[in-house]
């Protein structure tokens, strides 16, 4: 008997507690989490910071996935970034001297951020979705919905880049 194909997040029905208009954001974040787990299962830590052809490393993408959700959801709440968030932003893609990051640690950080984002989505009033939100020091114009949608879209873009980079560095390693 053929094995049933696993459904994508958007095919699994509504995410409990998430307002209807924010379901696509929730589905994209859940899909991203699933794909990150699939891609990073067994990924060798020694390849985490490899940059084939000068592209961003797997480590960068894992840090950036977590960071971009954190930052954009912060702006969606109408807040500015904290010093801690700015420090993490500057550190994205830079391995520490002792290279203490393990793939599992970065994946766990991403999981926590997705969980926090889902909680924020559950608490978001649909009536606020078109409210103005200023982004960054320049207060670039956006809306709650614009920021939440961009967080989901940007996350999926980096999951795609993570997929390619992880395969390239593993194939290169295999020779």
UniProtKB/TrEMBL annotation:
SUPFAM superfamilies recorded: DinB/YfiT-like putative metalloenzymes
Residues of the DinB-like domain: 29-162
Recorded GO MF terms: hydrolase activity
Keywords: Hydrolase
Keyword Transmembrane: no
Keyword Hydrolase part of the UniProt annotation: yes
Matches recorded under InterPro entries: DinB-like, DinB/YfiT-like
Name recorded for this polypeptide: Metal-dependent hydrolase
